[in-house]
Design a protein that fits this description.
The protein is α/β, with parallel strands linked by helices. The protein has one domain: Alpha/Beta hydrolase fold, catalytic domain (Rossmann fold), CATH 3.40.50. The C terminus is likely disordered. Helix 9 packs parallel to helix 11. The chain is built from 15 helices and six strands. The chain is globular.
Length: 347
Amino acid sequence: MRERRRNAAAFGGAPDNITLFDESSGAASIGCLMASPLAAGLFQRAILSGGHPEMVRPPAQAQALADGVAAALGVPATAEAFRDKTSEELIAVQGAGYGIDLRDEQGVEPFGGILPYTPVTGDDVLPEHPLAAIRNGAGSEIALIVGTNREEFNLTTVPNDAIDALDNNKAVATLSAIRPNAAEILALYGVNQPGTTAGQALTQAQTDLTFRLPARRVGAAHQGRTHFYEFGWRSPVLGGRLGACHGLILPFMFNTLSLDTGPDRKGARTRHKSLACSPGLDRLRHHRGSGLARIRPRPPVDVAGHPQHHSPRRRAVGQRRALRSHPGIESRLDVGLNYRCPFTNRQ
């Protein structure tokens, strides 16, 4: 960051007007930079898409990960031993990290079992948990946009057909590896209800637990200007089952949907502008006074999955009435409606 500030003017930029944007684990890294005292004052705006600064580990879990990878390498878990190995040797054993129990003292794996390698708290870079630091005012001078896609976890369970293959026992076992009270959580997502399969319930729960709820917590904790979005355009890939999955927002953000060369070649068949402006896909809108913005292809749903056609404020009232509390899981209320800091004024 310091190097970028020094060279910003040479590339036509302003060193005191820097925006950081990234998606997924990159967004988590930017969230950590917001919380780090070493990065204070180095950037003025942050956009976190599909990732958040809760994707970190305390030292104990980081040590367990280092021990496991070191064992796979056959070396002590020391920095010197790792440095002596080639990149090829390290890459060959990186899969060992996926077999290690990385749950914290509450039984939560903050990355949802997706990725074992994350930033670590408790040093000079992150002296405290990033969410706690942000809640205490770290990064308050930074204007923040944070958001998620509506069906983030579809990318994990749809392409490999896990969403269809999981039965109730397998869904509970899968969620138990990263969360306590897995059976109770899945029940809240309709796992035993007609029309909802175990795979669908797990996928929806993981979208909320790993992406949507933590992103909302960061937005609620941030003491500066905050804007939240939700992206809901559903991909037609895999018969439309992929939905508004993780990463799908990127070609819209960079205006590159027409360059799609995948097997479905949706970009080659349909101009990306017509897709982006097709009926039902609203442009990014800000609900004044609420701090909530959405890109959505369909009416929002309440906690029971029923379409709602009301105004944002009336919809929030209906959601609050329908909420069900459960130990260990947050209410599925869109708390973006309570944000206090609109992101409409550009500087």
